[in-house]
Amino acid sequence: MWLTTYDGLISYNGFESKVLTVEDGLRHNIINAVFFDSENRLWVAAESGGVGYLNADSVYYRDELAALDSLNVMYITEDKSGSLYFSTYGAGLFIWDQQSLRQITTEQGLPSNNIWKIHFSSTGKTWIATQEGVAVMRNNEVEHVFTPINGMSGWAAYSFAEEEDGTIWNSDQQWDHKI
After folding, report:
1. CB 90 within 8 A of CB 71
2. Whole-angstrom Cα distance, residue 126 to residue 140?
3. Distance CA 38, CA 164 (A)
4. What average pLDDT score do residues 129-155 get?
């Protein structure tokens, strides 16, 4: 079990725990997010410290992800093709396809650069929960944006749930699966 804290990353195997801190290679002791990718690497996002992955008891940082080094990465996930998605507080969304890093911000149509959660729907769309609305992307391009101006019940969106029929929910808001 991995626990994110303000004092490092805690691993617990059911019997004993170990705390990883800046002394073990983390760039900050406040840990915002962890994520196991399809290659079973544990990615760690530290406060204003970018993202690295754990190998044994060491943290490794890839040069290709240096643009994230001073950012607050809040959430990490992976799509079916193996691309990693990094949501940030203040700098939008970053997508790394294992070769290049692409940034998507309000300039490309996001309602906010403060991103909380990403959901890959059963219809192949990427849903992005932000501080000022929801964006829906297909092929890494923003197709739809929802805010209170066009029917959303509030501004901030924090997560999603999907029903078996493809209907997407956020808090008390429901979106038709045909979007």
Report:
1. yes
2. 8
3. 24
4. 91
Lowest mean pLDDT across 19-23, 81-85, 109-113 = 19-23
- The amino acid that residue 145 corresponds to is V
The pair of three-digit structure tokens given for residue 127, joined into one six-digit string:
């849903």
For 50, phi then psi, to 5°, come to: 70, -155
As a whole number of angstroms, the distance between CA 30 and CA 48 comes to 9
Look over the chain and give the mean of its residue pLDDT values, rounded to a whole number: 91
Q: How many CB atoms lie within 10 A of CB 40?
A: 6
Give the chain's length. 179
What is the full DSSP assignment across 115-168?
A: EEEEEE-TTS-EEEEETTEEEEEETTEEEEEE-GGGT-SSS-----EE-TTS-E
Of 69, 66, 38, 42, nearest to 56 by C-alpha is 42
The one-letter amino acid code at 10 reads I
